[in-house]
């Protein structure tokens, strides 16, 4: 079983209940609360997560791109979380030459990709809304290999 299955099916639901009722928060806050719960889970697995998340409101079919530097000595998890109106979003991670490095193709509102880059450099993650509309944010987590 991979880390995504463990995180989503076993630990995320209770963590989200601890962080409060996301439906009463603004749509952007709901997305950020999901990421906060995920960062707690990833910390328990030895990952550090960046304190800031990048994202925006997306209509169905739209995308946004997050640019980030990744380092070859680290293993990474990039995770996005949509608010309650987001049904399916995906992440596609590209290197500086626009080659696809990793992607999430599952049908859910919390996509994750893992990567252990072979070189340090600039990468970009494209987040695409396949079904639904609403806020989504992307967070980068890492640990030393």
Run of helices and strands = HHEEEEEEEEE
Poorly predicted runs of 5 or more residues: 13-25
Task: Give me the count of strands.
Answer: 9
The radius of gyration is: 14 Å
Helix content range of the residues, please? 10-25%
Distance from N terminus to C terminus (CA atoms, Å) equals: 20 Å
What key attributes describe this structure?
single chain; 145 residues; alpha+beta; Jelly Rolls; 5-stranded antiparallel β-sheet; 4-stranded antiparallel β-sheet; 2 helices; 9 strands; globular
Quick summary:
The chain is an alpha+beta fold. It contains two helices and nine strands; from the N terminus they run ααβββββββββ.
3D architecture notes:
This protein has 145 residues and is an alpha+beta fold. The protein has one domain: Jelly Rolls, CATH 2.60.120.380. The protein is built from two helices and nine strands; from the N terminus they run H-H-E-E-E-E-E-E-E-E-E. Strands 1, 2, 4, 7 and 9 form a five-stranded antiparallel beta sheet that branches. A four-stranded antiparallel beta sheet has the order 3-8-5-6, with no helix packed on it. Helix 1 packs across helix 2. It is globular. The two termini are 20 Å apart.
Topology:
Layout: H1 3-19, H2 27-44, E1 48-49, E2 54-58, E3 63-70, E4 74-82, E5 86-94, E6 100-103, E7 112-115, E8 121-132, E9 134-144
Helix pairs in contact: 1-2
